[in-house]
Amino acid sequence: MTATFAHTPLAQTLLTRPSWVRDLMLVLGGSLLVAALAQVRIPLPFTPVPITGQTFGVMLVGAGFGARLGFLALLLYLLEGLVGLPFFNGGGSGLSHLTGATGGYLLAFPLAAGLMGWFVERWGVDRSPWKMAAAMLSCSVLIYVLGATWLGVWLNENVGPTSVLAVLTKGVFPFIPGDLLKCVLAAALLPTTWRWLGREKPTADPKSPSS
Prior knowledge:
CATH architecture: Orthogonal Bundle
Number of domains: 1
Shape: globular
CATH topology: Arp2/3 complex 21 kDa subunit ARPC3
Strand order of the largest sheet: 1-4
Radius of gyration: 18 Å
CATH class: Mainly Alpha
Helix content: 55-70%
Distance between the termini: 5 Å
Order of helices and strands: EHHEEHHHHHHHE
Largest sheet: 2 strands, antiparallel
Number of strands: 4
């Protein structure tokens, strides 16, 4: 039988020697990247959820690091914010961000990064602009579902009964144009980087028999 291959994420292709030090530095670096992008914040007067650069960082970390390291990087990001580091949007921190209006979006970040990494490792979506854009849209839907669901609960508790349309207006619709722009940027950035490198390193699947 012919061996099957998984696609190696970009960071692991550039840093070819696996070690716990490498993985730790990637996880820490990914959390800091998302923390920096969280400070790119545009408040909207009609919703408690601001526009931020966080989701762009989530997608880049997941695609660049892979499922496991992407998930861990975003999990570390949440822990850093919870213990008091000013890493959430607008320099915020603490448990109130996870229990507040944006809590569902924050909790979705590790899952979205893991899913994006899985898309890369399974299908190599970061090598194709169209596949990368489609994968980002899928991960954005995951963030929207969890984020808007929790936002609806929060609005009902703090504002009063809220319709589904009102939740979508406050938690989904305003962010679609920006997320589409992020899809375009990521769909251009990662495939272009691969073409610039002129290589990719497939990794043999240890569970698959070879000929």
